[in-house]
Amino acid sequence: MLTPLKLLSYLFCLIIFHTTHTYAQEHGYLDKKFTTQQLLEDFTIFRQSLEESHPGLYWFNTKAEMDRCFDQHLTAINHPMTEREFFPILSELTAQVGCLHTTIAPSELTGEVYFTDSLRYFPLDLKILDGKGYVYRNVSEVESIPPGAEIVSINETPMDSIITHLLTHTSSDGHQKGWAAYFLQSVFHVRYKYLIDDSDQFRLVVKEPNGSLADYQMVGLSYPQRDSIRDERYGATANEEPWIQLRIDKAVSTATLRIPRFANWEIDGKKYKFKQVLARSMSEILEAEVDNLILDVGDRGGGNEDYGLSLLSYFLSEPFAGYKGIEFKNKKLDSRKYSEVGWLRYKLFRTMTKFEETDSTYLLKRAAGYKRVLSTIRPAPEQFTGKVFLLVGRSTASATSDFAAWMRSLDLATIIGEETGGNYYGNTSNWEFNITLPNTKIRLLLPLARYLTNVKPDIPLGRGVIPDHLISPTIEDFLQDRDPQHDYAMRLIEQEAQ
Prior knowledge:
Blueprint: H1 6-12, H2 23-26, H3 36-53, H4 63-74, H5 83-96, E1 103-105, H6 108-114, E2 124-129, E3 132-138, E4 150-154, E5 157-158, H7 159-167, H8 178-195, E6 201-207, E7 213-219, H9 223-234, E8 245-249, E9 254-259, E10 265-267, E11 270-272, H10 274-288, E12 292-297, H11 305-312, E13 320-321, E14 323-328, H12 343-352, E15 354-357, E16 362-366, E17 376-377, E18 387-392, H13 399-409, E19 414-417, E20 426-429, E21 433-436, E22 443-446, E23 449-453, E24 469-470, H14 475-479, H15 484-497
Parallel strand pairs: 9-12, 12-18, 18-19, 19-24
Antiparallel strand pairs: 1-22, 2-3, 3-4, 4-5, 4-6, 6-7, 8-9, 10-11, 13-17, 14-16, 14-23, 15-16, 20-23, 21-22
Helix pairs in contact: 4-5, 7-8, 11-13
């Protein structure tokens, strides 16, 4: 499902090109105007690709609502535009679908020009919380801006308006924007430059931690400059960490199992397999005979749904089917001709998968590597029978959100944290087409399979997993490296023990 950095790569083309004198620059590509006819052709292919291939297109909006949305955006294409002028029309429509795996990226030529070491970007790392932007890391040359300050405006535009605008162009599941806000934090400097203001100069009004307002002037910085200041002030951040981390505290009879992603990983050239490490970790927990397990999942998105089922098996008392079904919109997809999927690869896909046709869709019945996902899983040989406290947040998405949905629906855990970024009833992901529009070369990442989680229908459609105890971290929690969700779980455990 949600692979590491996939959204960073496809949603906004964060592949940085280090050549400043490219073909595109030399030929003034950013100023190139596409004819109205060319734009209409690209828009038609964009729309037809979604309508033909996306099985969740009408999941959170009716067909009439999506048709109306397409038609409204179509009226804006009535004159020649550059790619940058045309892009927001498609990005807003893409976000309207309500699928965090369905993303849009500028053309590679725009990437060659726009995302280079020579360009200057907004020089603050942010946390976006409750619609507000806070300084998390000051990587600017103005050292006096304090971490924790709230940004009130940038270049005379209110910060809440900037965030609201950018969120309407950022994909997220269903009707909530938790994942979009989480994702926007990491790409704010790029999206601000491309979608809001191309300026290299920034005038900020900030509310400092003591409540006073202050004005700051600063210049944008290149990627190397930002990275250099960040490393000097805050230390270099390790790029690798284990996806499974276990801590046992016998004094309070509690184990904490942190799983940021459901994925294999590699550190210093050594490869680790998720299922093997999970089995060892669960054995340690069972041997310790603790009464409580704090399970922290999804700090880095999703991963492999089969690994989520493996984790779930340690809490099941009877066999369980994780998914009601996996749906495809069509078996024959004409939009493939605009993608990177060659004829032979597409032929192999159709040969190696088996579908059951229904009145409106095609249910996946067989696919290589999907036997467990498509069938009923059995409880693990040894079960954890103590109390489980599941920690979730807006970065819990895709496969990790599906896991949280199962745990909630089966009443297997007390859930603490924020509403998950993933949809409670499943997601659309996998078997993606990377569609390149023929004229502008804008790219649409289009998943083909809709996963329907086997859960009780007791949460409104379009919402994530809603915790039993809503606990959201503040900017102070992030700055002081506090974990309020874990702390809250520990308080519940201590109260129960009294």
